[in-house]
Amino acid sequence: MTRRIANVIFVARGSITALWKKRIGTVLCPETQKTLNRHKSRIRCQVERVFAQLKRWYGYTRVRYVNHGRNKLQFLLLCMIYNIRRALTLVAA
């Protein structure tokens, strides 16, 4: 399957690609593309912060188990712990 066909299927399912478009060589990005990149940066910043904290606080840099189910369970437990700590912080504020 080529990349183009995969992208068409991806978009047909209702998903969008949220990748940055960057300049190629000396050709600069148009102003509309810079605006879209700025919007994507705001969203990406919020999402990446959660994964950075999981890696920093809980050492989740590598998976521990070979089995996919166990790794999924470990990740879900880490997310639950993260959400509980966040809820306690929000309630205390």
Give the overall pLDDT as a whole number: 80
Order of helical and strand elements: HHH
Helical/strand content category: mainly alpha
Beta-strand content estimate:
under 5%
Instruction: Using the CA coordinates, give the radius of gyration.
Output: 19 Å
Low-confidence stretches: none
Count of helical stretches? 3
Task: Calculate the terminal CA-CA distance, rounded to whole Å.
Answer: 51 Å
What percentage of residues falls in helices of 4 or more residues? 55-70%
Number of DSSP strand runs: 0
Gross morphology: extended
Largest sheet geometry: none
Explain the layout of strands and helices.
Layout: H1 3-12, H2 31-58, H3 68-92
Summarize the structure.
The chain has 93 residues and is mainly alpha-helical. 68% of the residues lie in helices and 0% in strands. The longest helix is centred in the middle third of the chain and has 28 residues, at 31-58.
Describe what this molecule looks like in 3D:
- The chain has 93 residues and is mostly helical.
- The chain is built from three helices and no strands.
- The chain is extended.
- The model has no long low-confidence stretch (mean pLDDT 80).
Labels describing this entry:
68% helix, mainly alpha, extended, 93 residues
